[in-house]
Every structure is written in structure tokens, then in C-alpha cells.
Amino acid sequence: MKYHEQGSIVQHKQVGSDYYLMSIEAPSIAAEARPGQFVHLLCSEGLHPFLRRPISIFFAKEGEVGLLYKVVGEGTGLLSQKRVGETADLIGPLGTSFQDHGHERVLLVAGGIGIAPLVFLADTLDRSDKEVYAIYGAADRRDLVARVDLAMNCSELDVSTMNGSEGVRGTVLDVLQQRYGNGAALPQYLYACGPGAMLEALYSWMQEKGLPGQFSLENRMGCGIGACLGCVLPKRRGEGYLRICCDGPVFDAAEVQCQASLTE
Length: 264
Known about the structure:
Layout: E1 3-14, E2 19-25, H1 27-32, E3 38-41, E4 53-61, E5 64-70, H2 74-79, E6 87-94, E7 105-111, H3 115-124, E8 131-138, H4 147-151, E9 156-161, E10 168-169, H5 172-180, E11 189-193, H6 196-209, E12 213-216, E13 232-234, E14 241-243, E15 250-252
Parallel strand pairs: 7-8, 7-11, 8-9, 9-10, 11-12
Antiparallel strand pairs: 1-2, 1-6, 2-5, 3-4, 3-6, 4-5, 12-15, 13-14
């Protein structure tokens, strides 16, 4: 079930050079939200920009919805100017969510702002009988804005940066090669969210290892409910397309090609 709520912004702070964390009073959405789902958020009170922006849910608790986002264009730029006490207009929770299939050894892989739904997932996994290992990749150490949030719900966390300013120099695939190239026990299941190129490379590695998993994808969206067909991506097997907003954003990794990009 999805809701249209207009709630007060109770927290809004900058957590990195271009990253912000916003918490909004939205009790109906918070009660229904599951990891991997998103909200469709109005960025201004006027008609410009006309379209809402899809933002993954970072947390949902105590009647509040937390949104971690990066300023990448005009819409998110306007959103970053909103202040505590102002009203936010949002629709959600939208889309599909991650599913926990009960595996004992689980791997979470986050790239950039793709960390948001994975923090929510890590916080909700039943860890009583799980080993949860995570990898968090970014361009620079300053972009590892949610490292502490992810680490507190994982057994172990490794990071990578493209410029080598923190952790392994390179991509999350370089971390995987180092860890599992030395004979470490492979995970039984993988969850990931990040840039399309990262997910495609990750899928190739999963195929090589015979590892199943789920990807949360991001793409530009118009309506957010499957009507406009503005966010479609091709199926990985067979003909046709899938709508990121309602067929996803969480898919079986073998289901859809991951040529996704961040929305503005």
C-alpha cells in the first residue's frame, strides 16, 4: 500500500560534500516501508521542477522516514535547501523490497549513494544466525558518508576508494578479488545497490562463482508508479523491458540489465 503524506522535516543535515540526510514525519509510510523501497519526493512548492524525485529509504522508524541523498542536479539541489520545520510532500513506500531467504553467509555490496537501501537492509536482517559481510565503495574517502551506519549492523566491513584515500585502492570488485582470491568461504547470497557499471561487473563475478543475489537499481523516473514507462531497462534474458519503479527497484540479479544512472 502506498500513501501520500505531507510531513514536517524533523532533521536535515549535510553529511558530506554533496550528501544530505533528511528525516521526515510520515507515520503511514514509515510503518509500511521495507528495505529497498523508495519515496517519490516533491523538491519545491512550485511547478519547477515539475517531476518528483525518487529517493531510497535509509531508515523507517518511530513514525519517521530517513532519506540519504546526493545533490546531482537541480531537483536535489532545491531539496538540499529545505529547512527543519518545513513541510515535505512525499508518496510511498514505492516499489519492491529486498527479500531475506535465510542464508547464513550474506554479502552486501554498496557503491556510492547506493549505500542507502543497504543500511536499511542490514538493520532489519535477522542476524541471530547470520554472518553479514559488507563492501562499501566510493570515489574518495569523503564519499563514505554512511560507513558507520553500515558497520554497526555487519560482522565485517571493507571499503574501497578509486583514489586510494581509504581502504583498497580501486573498486568493490578489487576487494572481492582480494578477499575471495585467497580461499575465503564464498557468501551464499549477495545484495547490492550502486552504479549500473558496478552492478554489471558484479553480476559477471557472481556468474563465475555461481552466486545468487538481488540488485536494487536506480534510474530516472517520471511518475514512479509504472504509467509513464520512463524508467524501463531491458530484461537480461529474452525480449522486453522492466519498469524500475514498480517491477523493481529490487530485482533478482539475473532478471534485468543494470544500465542505471542516478536521478537528478
